[in-house]
């Protein structure tokens, strides 16, 4: 009986060895040359990863890269009979590491998404070989250094998202000559200015928020009237007056210029932006009357103009479902600034600082309570003690 059991175990062992030998042979069979390059690239990347707490790359072994988690294959664009790696998606993996130059071997890559991880370093210069790359999303990581200028060499790129990193310095003006559809560069450490060729960009969405992008919006922004739908300029150190050219953006749905140092009156031209749904001008130094045409926009749902120095508010603005007019100088409205604070502000002249001509002054109100002691200020608000 013991001999029979021993013989049975030996037979099982032979079967198992044969099975694993077959698997090993299959795993080591070289794929087509492009998948072989992808294998080399992904193995180099795996070796540059220092932490993968959720095990996204735990199955990254063997030549069959199309079975790797986060790797997607498709027929090649130039040969439908040839399978290639067309996409990488490691979003929300919490992976630490860097991007090796070997990733330039993924020449058929169309999508590269690694948002919400802990990758650091820079974007490899070898990415210039990714001539088919359509979407690049490296947001919410720890990349640093200058703007990743290699993206300027990607002829097929349409979607660029590098927000929530630590990039610094200038944003190259050539970025706005690319045929992109979306640009997200917000929440970095850029210190730059708006280039004159900004209007060359055909984007539908552009987000600059939370950088130091100083200066005036160039007049070329008028050229974006047929494409731009969202413009986010929150906390970008804007100063001076808001250019009336902004009113040319007739397809714009969202405009946010809050948390800056803009002065003067809101341009009457904003009333021409018939597609506008959300308008936020809060936390600036705007003054004077709010144009009635703005609150009359047919699609406007949200208008936030708190923390400014407006003194005139058309009644139609009060009918908006979602508005915020707090901390202004508007008579008979709750939660406004103190009269003394408004007086002090209106005793100072408006300075557009080269960003367009200052708006015409409103007529002085017939008030018995106070008049500004100096005659040089552009506006005189109708405030009551």
The CATH class of the largest domain turns out to be Alpha Beta
Mean pLDDT: 87
CATH superfamily of the largest domain: Ribonuclease Inhibitor
- The SS-based structural class is alpha/beta
- Please name the CATH topology of the largest domain: Leucine-rich repeat, LRR (right-handed beta-alpha superhelix)
SS strand fraction: 15-25%
Shape: elongated
CATH architecture of the largest domain: Alpha-Beta Horseshoe
Amount of helix: 10-25%
Order of helices and strands: HHEEEEEEEEEEEEEEEEEEEEHEEHEH
Terminal Cα span: 109 Å
Low-confidence stretches: 1-27, 361-385
| DSSP strand tally | 23
Strand order of the largest sheet: 2-3-5-7-9-11-13-15-17-19-21-23
Counted up, domains total 2
Tell me the major beta sheet. 12 strands, mixed
What would you note in describing this structure?
The chain is of the alpha/beta class. The radius of gyration is 29 Å and the shape is elongated. Residues 1-27 and 361-385 have low confidence and may be disordered. It folds into two domains: 30-169, Leucine-rich repeat, LRR (right-handed beta-alpha superhelix) (Alpha-Beta Horseshoe), CATH 3.80.10.10; 173-353, Alpha-Beta Horseshoe (Leucine-rich repeat, LRR (right-handed beta-alpha superhelix)), CATH 3.80.10. The strands form three sheets. The protein has a twelve-stranded mixed beta sheet with strand order 2-3-5-7-9-11-13-15-17-19-21-23, covered by helices on one side. Helices cover 15% and strands 22% of the residues. The chain has five helices and 23 strands.
């Amino acid at each position: 009986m013991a001999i029979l059991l021993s013989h049975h175990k030996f037979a099982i062992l032979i079967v198992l060895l044969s099975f694993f030998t077959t698997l090993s042979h299959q795993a080591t069979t070289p794929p087509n040359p492009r998948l072989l390059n992808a294998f080399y690239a992904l193995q180099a990347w795996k070796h540059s990863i220092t932490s993968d707490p959720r095990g996204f790359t735990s199955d990254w072994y063997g030549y069959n890269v199309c079975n790797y988690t986060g790797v997607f294959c498709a027929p090649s664009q130039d040969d439908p009979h040839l399978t290639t790696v067309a996409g990488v998606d490691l979003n929300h993996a919490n992976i630490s590491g860097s991007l090796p130059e070997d990733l330039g071997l993924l020449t058929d890559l169309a999508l590269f998404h690694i948002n919400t991880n802990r990758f650091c370093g820079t974007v490899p210069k070898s990415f210039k070989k990714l001539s088919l790359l359509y979407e690049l999303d490296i947001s919410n990581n720890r990349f640093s250094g200058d703007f990743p200028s290699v993206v300027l060499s990607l002829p097929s790129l349409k979607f660029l998202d590098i927000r929530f990193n630590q990039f610094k310095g200038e944003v190259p003006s050539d970025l706005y000559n690319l045929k992109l559809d979306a640009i997200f560069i917000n929440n970095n450490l850029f210190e730059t200015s708006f280039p004159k060729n900004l209007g060359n960009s055909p984007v539908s969405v552009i987000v600059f928020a939370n950088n130091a992008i100083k200066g005036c919006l160039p007049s070329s922004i008028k050229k974006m009237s047929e494409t731009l739908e969202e413009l986010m300029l929150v906390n970008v150190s804007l100063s001076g007056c808001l250019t009336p050219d902004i009113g040319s953006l007739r397809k714009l749905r969202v405009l946010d210029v809050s948390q800056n140092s803009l002065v003067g009156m809101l341009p009457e031209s904003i009333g021409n932006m018939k597609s506008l749904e959300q308008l936020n001008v809060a936390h600036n130094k705007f003054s004077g009357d709010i144009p009635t045409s703005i609150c009359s926009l047919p699609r406007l749902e949200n208008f936030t103009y708190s923390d400014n120095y407006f003194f005139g508010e058309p009644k139609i603005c009060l009918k908006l479902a979602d508005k915020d007019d707090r901390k202004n100088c508007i008579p008979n409205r709750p939660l406004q600034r103190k009269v003394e604070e408004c007086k002090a502000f209106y005793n100072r002249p408006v300075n557009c600082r080269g960003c367009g001509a200052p708006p015409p002054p409103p007529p002085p109100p017939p008030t018995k309570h106070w008049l500004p002691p100096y005659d040089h200020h552009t506006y005189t608000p109708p405030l009551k003690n």
